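Practice problem: predict the structure.
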Amino acid sequence: MSEYVNNERMGPRSGLVETGDGGRFNWGNYYKGQPHSISRGLCPGSKPFYTNGERIVGNAEDKYPLWKGPAKIPVYAVEGEQVTFSSTSTEDAPGGTGIARFMMYYLDVNLDEKEEEIELNGTTEVTSTATDVRWVQELLVTSRDDVGSNDSAVGDIEGVVNGGSPACFIASGDLTQLSSFMCVPRGKVFFIDGVTVATASATSDSRSTIRLVYSISDLLVSTSSFSVQNGGYHIPTAVGKGFPEGTVVGMTATTNKAAVVGGQIIGRIEPDCFNFEQPVVG
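Answer:
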């Protein structure tokens, strides 16, 4: 049975209950904020947020950013950049056997989420229309019509900023950028729900220490680490540190020999000043 307290409807149909200390607790809001509800789009302003990184290690490496790019993760100019793309193969172009077009999902200078379609021209450089790119979140082929008979990139596709610093990368044989790094958009907080780490070598056991890192200016600070030897595992996490807007979150790997190293971060972004809607009563 419902009753009204201070003009608020209390009881099971509203989800709003009075606590023992005279406060209010809203069960409807609580369930809307759970990861499975966010994945279903039931929590306005929130959505899943995840990364998928992979690196082919040729020799032992120490604390190397976990992505397929050819160099360390760059520091972007705060005022934004234009991104220049090219492939190492002429086949990554319209009419070729590789990738002709892909979507660039990025954050602008205000950390707002934007997107732009990029059409490649093989080894010839092409530039983004956007000149205010602060961070490239993802490169992704979104249509079967945008890739030829090779079903993937023929060459390595690289996007560079600031006169040549690597910003984003699709490796030969892939359809998307494989990077463990993402940047938190404006007005959001990123919460991690779990991580997956793995390492494998064809010849003998490989060992990797994979660190979860976040940015302070151009520094990557470790917040936790996971060690794995020729295998992999998933680690669910409890609610912990929330990463605010503009923070780059990702992984680094220290590996003792040639190996394939993988890492995935799974979580959600929520508004930084969360204010749930009152549940519908009826």
